[in-house]
Amino acid sequence: MDPVTTAPLTLLLGPEAPAVLATALDGYRGRLHALRVASVAVQPTGAAVVQYRADVERADGSRTAETLAATTGGRIPSGAAVLSGEHDGRPVEVGVWRWPQDPALPALAAATDPDRLRDALAAAGLPRTGPPRVRVRAYRPGRRAVLQVDGGGPRLYLKVVRPAAVDALVARHGLLAGPAPVPPVLAATADGLVVLPEQPGTPVRALLGGGAPLPSPADLDALLDALPPALAGLPSRPGHLGRVRHFTDVLALTAVTAPAEREALDALAAALEATDAGAPATVPVHGDLHDGQLLAADGSVTGLLDVDTAGPGHRVDEWATLLAHLSVRAPHERDPGPVRRYGATLLAHAEERVDRAALRPRIAAAVLGLATGPFRVQQPGWAAHTRARLGLAGRWLG
């Protein structure tokens, strides 16, 4: 690996990280006692965003668990505390912050404060009869957060995004809500807060293995057919085959560092890049369709979530993404049978709808993308899980 590229990452994951993160606590004289890496998002350039769980002693002597973040390279948002110096003899800059003062997500601090949130919801015409209770469902530092709001009224979900992303997200919901079971936007603010109602149903991911009826392949086809044509006029994103080199570069910086493993990874990437992608029709797509994005009840699809990626694309990539997620998930189930059977049912249907020779390389490329996950979330045994996913990608390609 190029030391120029990886120096910032080794700094954020190495023994010097606590000294760097201590800067985020200076504003209230906090003292860092322990630090654990929770997630690592890496770009092929080496720029990284690392999320930490921290044990902090406050000025009054109390101890608290906090979330801290650090970022390098072009990922440093305006407003972060920035440290400049050298690491391994090379200049490096690091931006740091503590939850919920994410400088890229200015709406986050108010969204996580019950009093400020109650005022914001009332101002948006969504008053609560009691103090809201906020539960964090997801947080990607510098990118977005998803919060669940209970108490004082119907359950709501808040998406906190960068201010520049609000209009596009609201527009996608406006196009999709109605034609598809996508929640409408109840309110949105210029600083990045988007308020959504709860959709009925249970995530398909939670239903798998529980014996409940699941959406049929025909139901999923009907869902995709319902996506409005206007989505095809939005900006496009590359499919998984178009992102193979991105996935490979990230893996080479993080989880695949041994020479023999890197050689096998390069061979897999070369085989995927040599695949004839063909020219499938461009149609409206969700862009990240998987079992966690689908809600269902009594075997029918009742909700489609996270439409940030909706736009023009190829139907074969929708099936490939869903099948890749199922195939990666199955080995981790106590009883993998239901997941594998559902995946087999969907695969048989998809191969009747699209060219098998086009589908399987795209599943392999999607699995390659998912191989970056174990390191990113710091899953215990991430090296073995990464190898297993790379082997699975190879089998799909074969």
TrEMBL record:
Q: Which Pfam families match?
A: APH
Gene3D superfamilies, per the entry: 3.90.1200.10
Q: Could you name the domain of life of the organism this protein comes from?
A: Bacteria
Q: Domain Aminoglycoside phosphotransferase: where? A: 143-347
What is the name of this protein? Phosphotransferase
Q: What is the lineage of its organism?
A: Bacteria, Bacillati, Actinomycetota, Actinomycetes, Pseudonocardiales
